[in-house]
Structure formats: structure tokens, C-alpha cells
Amino acid sequence: MSGLTDGRPRQEGPARGRPRSEAVEHAIVEGVVKLLEEGVPLAELSIERIARTAGVGKATIYRRWSGKDELFVDVVRATEPQDPELPGISVRDDLVALLEQLRQRGLMTRSSVVLHSVYAQMKSSPKIWAAYHATVIEPRRRIQLEVLRRGQRSGQLRADMDAELMNDLLVGPMLLRTVMRPDADLPEGLAEQLVDALLEGLRPPNSPPVTS
What is the pTM for the complete model shown? Predict the structure, then answer.
């Protein structure tokens, strides 16, 4: 798991009180990662222990995060694939990029015992899971919905179906394979297959077939 945060800028989050040093934040995040790799449970990750491992003072951590829960959400976010830059050429290409990020996240989780443990521990803490959902999952869902609504406005997708339902149809199969069926294949090209199948069913009546 070490190195997954190398050179990766943190996504937008709550404003901190003072200017942030990327090097210091990187050291703190890597300190948490190191402890997790050593098998330290989340409940035992005190700010004091994290500070000692990262080689910083506790005040340095508290200037950047309000507490352990907020820090842990940033650590989990840093271990995931970066949110994709959407091509913006077509609804299909944007949806493929979004699903490919989910596929890559599934592959990373499967290949790392530490990541698997991290997600399990996070879900066991309602406070941390709620923070992760609000700062990571919900922004991604809003992007997915906007792409689908753009497709409706442009006539690429049928307008008589709720975008929320379309989004469930889009991400559901990939989440099923990455979360509910850890033995299922996640081959290259899976995102394209899912998007093309979905768009074929959601294209407006009398419109030309979806082409890749």
C-alpha cells in the first residue's frame, strides 16, 4: 500500500485553518498507511501514535485535520484511483471513464490485503463511513448524474426515465462484481461492455444504434 499516495494531490475537502504543506501531509498519510500495514486496528490509531510514526507533532496534524476520523477518510481517498478526467466528447466516453475508475478501484482492493481491511474497518464505523460517503461517494454520484442528464438533454438518452434509476443501472453491475462477487472477473473492456449494453437499452425510440 505504501507509495499509493506518492505525488497524488488530495481532492478538495474542508478548508484547513492554515496553509498546507504537501510534504508534511504526505508524511502524515504515509504514517497512517505504515501503521495499517503493520496490522494496527483503526481503533488503536491515536493521533499521538500517528504523529510519532510520521515524525511530526500532534499540533501539526490537528492544524490539518479536526481528528482521526477526518484524517482516515483522506487516507482512504488517497489509496483509491484518481477520479477520471472526463473526455467530454460524448456521453458514452464519459460513462466509460467513470465505470473504468470503479473497475480499477475493485482491482486495487482485491490485490491488497491492507486495503480490504481498511474498507472493512471503515464500514464498521458509522461516523467514518458517513464522512466517506459525503466527501467521496456523493460527489462522484453527482458527476455521474450530470453526465446522464446531459445525455437526456442532448437526445442521446431517453428522457422518460429518472436519471437516478439510470445511474443505478449503470454502476450497479460494476459494484456487484467489485463488492458482492469478489471472485468475478474484472477484465479490460468491461466498462465499455456495460456502457454499450446500457446505452442500447436507453437510447430514445427510432434513434440509431449505439456505436463505440
Answer: 0.75
